[in-house]
Amino acid sequence: MENRPYNVLFICTGNSARSLMAEAVLNQLGQGRFRAFSAGSQPAGRPHPMALELLQRNRYDTSALRSKSWDEFAQPGAPEMDFVLTVCDKAAGEVCPLWPGQPISAHWGVEDPAAATGPEDKRRQAFNDALLVLSRRIAIFLALPLDKLDRLALQRELGRIGLSGKPAGAAA
After folding, report:
1. Is residue 166 included in any domain, yes or no?
2. What DSSP letter does each residue of 54-84 carry, written as one string?
3. Does 88 participate in catalysis according to the annotation?
4. What would the pLDDT profile of 51-98 be if each residue is shown by its tens digit?
């Protein structure tokens, strides 16, 4: 790969919480080695307020986060993705656009915090849990020796990462 950051697209249906959180986390922790983006098949139109609040409280930059369609990344002139990671079950089952450059893809399903019901503290905990799972998976991803793994090994490792990092007590 030429000397440029790896481009990673996190996709979800609504692009209002999980995929946006993953984008913010990878952009900060990737420190120039990665450029993260997020999108949805049916974007909600705005980031979820609890997701933004949680990211800001944890000192992640949210200034560029917006809910957007995955069509933006399938257009000519869009950044070429190296990795496309689905973070919700709905998006994993949908027919995705053809991504230029044949990126490596994997499913990193995370429970939807925006679907949590009940008291506010329970809903906030759902967002905390989602951020924790995503942060753990991204940390594992960042530790991979990407330059030493072939495409098949990378695909296998990304699939394994998608099975890891559940918070204690969470359903598998």
Report:
1. no
2. HHHHTT---TT----BGGGGSSTTSPPPSEE
3. yes
4. 999 999 999 999 999 999 999 998 888 999 999 999 986 655 666 677
Give me the catalytic one of 29, 74, 78, 96: 96
Overall number of domains in the chain: 1
- Tell me what pLDDT residue 3 has: 75
Is 28 part of a structural domain of the chain?
Answer: yes
Q: Which of 50, 51, 88, 106 is catalytic?
A: 88
12, 52, 116, 126: the active-site residue: 12
Question: What is the Cα–Cα distance from 15 to 20, expressed in whole angstroms?
Answer: 6
CATH number of the domain within which 135 lies: 3.40.50.2300
What global pTM score does this model have? 0.90
Token couple for 126? 């759902």
User: Considering the domain boundaries, does residue 146 fall inside one?
Assistant: yes
In the predicted model, what is the mean pLDDT of residues 111-116? 92
| Domain membership of residue 18 as a residue range | 6-161
